[in-house]
């Protein structure tokens, strides 16, 4: 059984350096250190132009869920699973609390310097800051979605 760590919440701006290194915000770093999460997995989000940083425990839950839904003996499903894994990479925090985001991931997410870390439950999203200057959905759609997904 997996132990649930504190949830990531909030959004914090940061900058990547010329090599693609970025400091994980202190609030998020504290949660990772408290949970003894030293291994992180990075992948491009399926729906948005952002990156998702999974602590190892969250990544294991993700893979367990995927495996429960997919048949590894079905060629199409195995190809999907394989592609999901291929689009992922292990990153490690250095002693200063930085991670190196490989160039191909920076390009996939359109990140050129300023980023915004967004805590989303048990993962951390990394966005190009400019992409979050406006809401992802307008207020009326958001209100409608509350009724659509949570009330009805």
Task: Write the topology of this structure.
Blueprint (H helix, E strand, L loop, with lengths): L7 E8 L5 E3 L2 H9 L4 E6 L6 E5 H14 L5 H12 L1 E5 L5 E3 L2 H7 L4 E8 L1 E6 L10 H13 L1
Antiparallel strand pairs: 1-7, 2-6, 3-4, 3-5, 4-8, 7-8
Describe it for me?
The protein has a single domain (8-151), classed as Transcriptional regulator MraZ domain (Chemotaxis protein chec, 3-Layer(aba) Sandwich), CATH 3.40.1550.20. The chain is built from five helices and eight strands; from the N terminus they run E-E-H-E-E-H-H-E-E-H-E-E-H. It has helices spanning 26-34, 56-69, 75-86, 103-109, 139-151, and strands at 8-15, 21-23, 39-44, 51-55, 88-92, 98-100, 114-121, 123-128. Strand 3 (39-44) and strand 4 form a beta hairpin. The longest helix has 14 residues, at 56-69.
Order of helices and strands: EEHEEHHEEHEEH
The chain-level structural class is alpha+beta
Mean pLDDT: 91
Helix count equals: 5
Number of domains: 1
Portion in helices: 25-40%
Number of distinct beta strands: 8
- Distance between the ends: 32 Å
Q: Tell me what the CATH architecture is.
A: 3-Layer(aba) Sandwich
Major β-sheet annotation: 6 strands, antiparallel
Q: How much strand? A: 25-35%
Rg over alpha carbons: 17 Å
Can you identify the CATH class? Answer: Alpha Beta
Uncertain residue segments: none
CATH fold-level label: Chemotaxis protein chec
Looking at the structure, what is the overall shape?
Answer: globular
**How are the strands ordered across the major sheet?**
1-7-8-4-3-5
């Amino acid at each position: 059984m997996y132990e649930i760590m504190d949830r990531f919440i909030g959004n914090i701006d940061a900058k990547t350096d010329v090599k693609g290194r970025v400091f994980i915000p202190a609030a998020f770093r504290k949660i990772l250190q408290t949970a003894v999460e030293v291994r992180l997995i990075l992948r491009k989000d399926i729906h948005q132009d952002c990156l998702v940083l999974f602590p190892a425990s969250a990544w294991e839950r993700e893979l367990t869920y995927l495996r429960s839904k997919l048949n590894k003996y079905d060629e199409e499903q195995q190809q999907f699973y394989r592609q999901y894994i291929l689009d992922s990479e292990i990153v490690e925090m250095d002693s200063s609390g930085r991670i190196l985001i490989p160039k191909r991931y920076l390009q996939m997410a359109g990140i050129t310097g300023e980023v915004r870390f967004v805590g989303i439950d048990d993962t951390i999203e990394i966005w190009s800051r400019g992409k979050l200057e406006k809401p992802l959905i307008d207020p009326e759609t958001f209100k409608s979605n509350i009724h659509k997904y949570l009330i009805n």
